[in-house]
Amino acid sequence: MYETFLTFLAQQERDDAIEWFTKESPAQARNWLDEFDRLLDRLENNPFQYAEHLLFIRRAKLHKFPYHVFYAVDEINYSVEIIGIQHTSRDPNIIRRRINFE
After folding, report:
1. Sequence-distant (≥ 6) Cβ neighbours of residue 58 within 8 angstroms
2. Angstrom distance (rounded) from CA 42 to CA 24
3. Relative orientation angle of helices 26-45 and 8-24, to the nearest 10 degrees
4. What mean pLDDT is predicted for residues 83-95?
5. For the segment 6-37, what is each residue's pLDDT rounded down to a tens digit?
6. Distance (Å, rounded) from C-alpha 83 to C-alpha 71?
7. How far is CA 15 from CA 5, 76, 80, in A?
8. pLDDT, tens digit, 9 for 90 and up, residues 34-78
9. Cα separation of 4 and 40, whole Å?
């Protein structure tokens, strides 16, 4: 089983999403966080279930929510590094810049 962890920026993006949903509907915020936690559980059990999106970066979509989770798998240390959580309407180049692909 793999261990998941979030980078500082991914933590901020998660917190920003929860804050936004909480303002709109606390129940939706809870649903979003539950779905995010389920995704982390799936990644811990099988991080290779989602295709590579940018070389070594994989992209998973949150069910029921328009968000992508970008992550890298470290097969040596059995870890999954969440590098970004992004609404699907945002500029996809944000992730490329974050990992210096531009």
Report:
1. 47, 48, 50, 51, 52, 70, 71, 72, 73
2. 27
3. 150
4. 91
5. 999 999 999 999 999 999 999 999 999 999 99
6. 5
7. 14, 29, 19
8. 999 999 999 999 999 999 988 899 999 999 999 999 999 999 999
9. 7
Q: Check which CATH number belongs to the domain holding 72 and give it.
A: 3.30.2310.20
Q: What is the pLDDT of residue 102?
A: 43
For the chain, the domain total comes to 1
CA distance 67 to 71: 13
Residue 74 structural domain? 3-99
| C-alpha span between 18 and 32 (Å, rounded) | 7
pLDDT at residue 54 in the model: 83
Six-digit token string for 67: 């968000």
